[in-house]
Amino acid sequence: MDCVILVGGEGTRLRPLTYNTPKQMLKVAGVTMIDRVLYYLSKNSVTRAVLSLGYKPDKFLKAYPDSKAYGIELMYAVEPEPLDTAGAIRFAAKYAGFDSRFVVVNGDVMTDLSVLDLIGFHEKSDAVGTIALTPVLDPSRFGVVPTDDSGKVVAFIEKPDAATAPTNYINAGTYVLENEVLDLIDSDRRVSIERETFPLLVKKSCLYGMPTDSYWLDLGTPQSLIKASCDILTLNYNDELFSSIYSKCGNGNWIRNSVQIPETASQSLFESGLAFNPNSKINLTTFGVDCIIGNGAIVSESIIGDGCKIGANVTIRNSIIGDNVTFKDNVTLIDCIIGDEAQLQEGEKMEQQRYPT
To answer: Is 143's pLDDT higher than 80?
Structure first.
């Protein structure tokens, strides 16, 4: 099976982390988003995938110099200019030479949806396009997809008011498309699949939706990144790739190779090169390589990048920290995002802030 993976966005909601690193190259529980997606696709019979690239494409090419990952042959389609979702799909599929049915996935979604089940539903429905659907509490941020009893989509409503939404099932960002869909997408302009292509398929009565209760999380926001990390650490999400890399040890912690960790740590992840003070308290947090944790530090529900130096009596809660960040003593961070190489001075207190902006 062939697949288009959409990874071209700038990740503005995750700045300043994405100033240096494209969103899908960010790590969640020690594994990049794109690695997790590729591994997942390899378990769903995908053998060829084209990455639809726009923002910082060289980072992806460098990550996979052999153009292979988990048995999948990789191709790289770099948009000359932003083409929106449908435009990007058409450009990438044409670039890769896809001439039959293919799958599309968003590269910033974490899910255990069975693509094979979606393909089976698509074939049974004799559909031209099929969308995986997932329920959410608040559908107003997404594309709502009401269907009839057969699964045929009767409307495609992008970001409706929550009070008037006809359903709470939304577009989950995984599609099965027949190649003929590409002929419906203009090649010389930006085209949105949610606002143009899917509504056109609805009018043609050939778009279907498959509801699923599979795990699904859009990793486009800081809150969702932290939730994904915590879900993996606590096994609320069964991540086979993560479990193949890291070993579980006492207090629900995870390590790679042999790493000594604080006895007061729980349900956290530690990489090599860790140096820590035994008086630190760590919970539901992932650390990159070569991190230092100072005396009296309290770190919870956070993601800490490589090479970070955390001083004495530092408190970090519900925050994401880039690589090589230095914290002087007595710093307090709550609900913050800190970019690579930042220096936080002694006694600094930040809440719901991004630095640098």
So the answer is: no
Question: What is the value of pTM for the model shown?
Answer: 0.91
- Type of residue found at 112: D
Structurally, how many domains does the chain consist of?
Answer: 2
Identify whether residues 133 and 11 lie together within a single domain: yes
Which of 45-59, 87-101, 155-169, 303-317 has the weakest average pLDDT?
155-169
pLDDT in tens, 144-155: 899 999 999 998
Q: Which residues contact 307 (CB under 8 A, 6 or more apart)?
A: 288, 289, 290, 291, 323, 324
CA separation for the pair 50, 95 (Å, rounded): 8
Q: Within a domain: residue 333?
A: yes
In a domain, residue 177? The reply is yes
Instruction: Return the ∠ at Cα 30 (arms to 29 and 32), rounded to 5°.
Output: 100
CATH no. for residue 107?
A: 3.90.550.10
Q: C-alpha distances in angstroms, 123 versus 104, 117, 144, 154? A: 16, 10, 23, 19
- Whether 102 and 119 have beta carbons less than 8 Å apart is answered as no
Instruction: Report which secondary-structure segment, H or E, holds 122.
Output: helix 115-125
pLDDT in tens, 266-284: 999 999 999 998 889 999 9
Cα dihedral: 35, 53, 44, 170 (round 10): 100
**Residue 158 pLDDT > 80, yes or no?**
no
Give the domain range for residue 49: 2-218
How many whole angstroms separate alpha carbon 311 and alpha carbon 40? 38
Two structure tokens written together for 18: 């994405």
